[in-house]
Structure formats: C-alpha cells, structure tokens
Amino acid sequence: MSNLKISSESKVKRIYGKKNADERVLERRERLLDAALELFSKQGYANTTIEALCAESKVTTRHFYQLFDGREALLLALYNQMIEELELGLLTAMMSEYQTLNQRMEGLIQALVHHYLKDTRRAQIGVIEVVGASELIERRRREVIYKIASHVETFMDALVIQKQLPKRNYHWLAIAIVGGINELMADWLVNRALSLEQLMEEMIFAFNTLFQGIGTDMSL
User: For 9, left (φ over 0), alpha (ψ -120 to 50), or beta?
Assistant: First the structure.
C-alpha cells in the first residue's frame, strides 16, 4: 500500500515538474520575443547580437538556441506573431457593419495602421527592420504584403456585391493600397512630420483619390 502511495506521489511530481518545465520554456520564449521587440526596434536588427538579446531577456545562450536557430529565426517568429494579430484585426474590421463606403474603408485603413502604430516598436520592425534583413525574411515580407492585399481584395469584392463599388478586378489596387500604407508608415517613422491623426487623414485622402480615379466617391 505504501509503495502504491509513493508511486502515485512520484507520478504527480513528474507531471508537475514537466508542467513547470514547459511553462518555463514558454516564458523564456516570450521574454526573448519581448527583448527582440525592444532591441530590434531601438538599435536595429543588424546591430543586435544574440548576447544582447540574452542579457535583455535574462535567458542563457544555451536556452536561446534551444528555442531559436539564431537571430533570423527570432525575428521571423516575432514578425509572424505580429502578422497573425494584424490579420485578426483586419478580419474584425471587414466584418464590422459600417454604413457608408467611407466608413468601411476608414475602418480597414485604421485596422492596418493602428496595429503597428499603437506601439511604434512594432512598426519599426514590421515596416523597416524586416526589409532586406535576409533572403528568408524578405521572402516572408513579400508573402505578407500579398496575403494582406488578398484580404483587402476580398473586402472590395464584397463591396461590389453590395453595390458600393463598381465591378472590376481589384487585385492590383489592393496591392497598391497595402504597399502605399506601408510606405506612408515608413516615411512617418523616419520623419514624424505629422501627428498620428494627421497621418490617418492623409491616408484617407490618398485612397479617396484612388477611388475617385475609378469613378467612385468614398463619401457615398
């Protein structure tokens, strides 16, 4: 009977110990992602060493390599995390019941911009640091642009069905919108010549002009 009790206690301890070990791994990963967000945005991806990331996150080099193959893998994980959150925000905006075309487009643009600019560290990484960081990261960045553009295109096609946009192929315009927003954010990050509210107004104006070019007024 006592042996059975000892065996049960040992099993519980093993399960408890494994759970704690798994939690510690997740905590280390989160600390490294937080450190990457801070250091990559402040001093640049190219200027940040693994030693600096480990010091910032209080994670040993050994534990770093248990989680990531190197800086590139860490940057990719952080970027992918941000993009997952961006897609969720976009889908939420796309499903919102705005009354006018102006409100619909403004909601979509706000979802794109606020995702990054509510924390400018995210924008610095998602808009600037990933550019040309490596072949793998650059390839992923291009994939993201086309994926987000496909969401925008789907959104526009839905507006065609609702007779809020004329029927046409919106593939290229969707890419222009995503690329344009990306470049406007990049310029804002470098110059900060406008307030965030003014930047949003300029974006709305820019895309209103695009839509007027195809015979549609966003103020409908």
Answer: alpha
